[in-house]
Design brief:
With 92 residues, the chain is an alpha+beta fold. The protein has a domain at 27-88. It has 2 helices and 2 strands, in the order E-E-H-H. A two-stranded antiparallel sheet has the order 1-2.
């Protein structure tokens, strides 16, 4: 009997101040599997920060905010990977 894969748990140090506490994450289906994604509002904020970063330097607060969003993305990817692996692994 094989044991499930062990993944290193990403660390969230703190959340961005602009992150809405309600509605920050949405649930979608992809190939019949549940997937956690950032909400449209969060995606718009990240896109705005990335556009600004291409044209000018972000303020220290904005750079920190973008870093926090990157941590959240890593965490959501981690959770999605676990769910996908659990649901796709053969059940005894």
């Amino acid at each position: 009997m094989s044991s499930p894969p062990i993944y290193p748990l990403p660390k969230l140090h703190h959340l961005p101040a602009s992150l809405p506490l309600d509605g920050a994450v949405r649930l979608a289906l992809q190939n019949g599997l549940p997937v956690l994604r950032a909400s449209t509002a969060v995606q718009r904020r990240i896109a705005a920060l990335l556009r600004k970063q291409q044209g000018t330097a972000l303020s220290p607060a904005e750079a920190d905010e973008l870093d926090r969003y990157e941590e959240i993305d890593d965490y959501l990817s981690f959770l999605n990977r676990i769910v996908r692996d659990l649901l796709q692994s053969p059940q005894p």
